[in-house]
Amino acid sequence: MVGCFIALFVKAKLLGRIRDLKTTKIKTGLGGSAGNKGAVVVRFKLDDTNIMLMNCHLMSGKKKGSKRTDEVNFIFDNAFKFEGKNRNFCVENH
Q: What are phi and psi of 31, to 5 degrees?
């Protein structure tokens, strides 16, 4: 992913309470062949609370609202779908 970044700073006293830290990136630009659009995602559990942070760069244009919604839904649906396998995903036919 070109240009998307997430930094997570944690107080030392909280480090032992964070579990299941996962990261991924998802390409959505040019039919998934380019990293110019997409998202980077971090997911973890703090005590009994699941937390997900996402930084995304979606397509632009006033008339592209439904396509942006489709991209966000794709990111949510596929961010950690294939854990343990290749975690780099792309949107097809966009």
A: 70, 25
> How wide is the angle at C-alpha 89 spanned by C-alphas 84 and 93, nearest 5°?
150
Torsion of CA 60, 75, 14, 6, to 10 degrees: -40
pLDDT tens per residue across span 11-44 = 999 999 999 999 988 888 766 555 678 899 999 9
88: its two tokens:
């780099």
Gap between the Cα atoms of 6 and 56, Å rounded: 10
Predicted model pTM: 0.72
CB atoms within 10 A of CB 25: 17
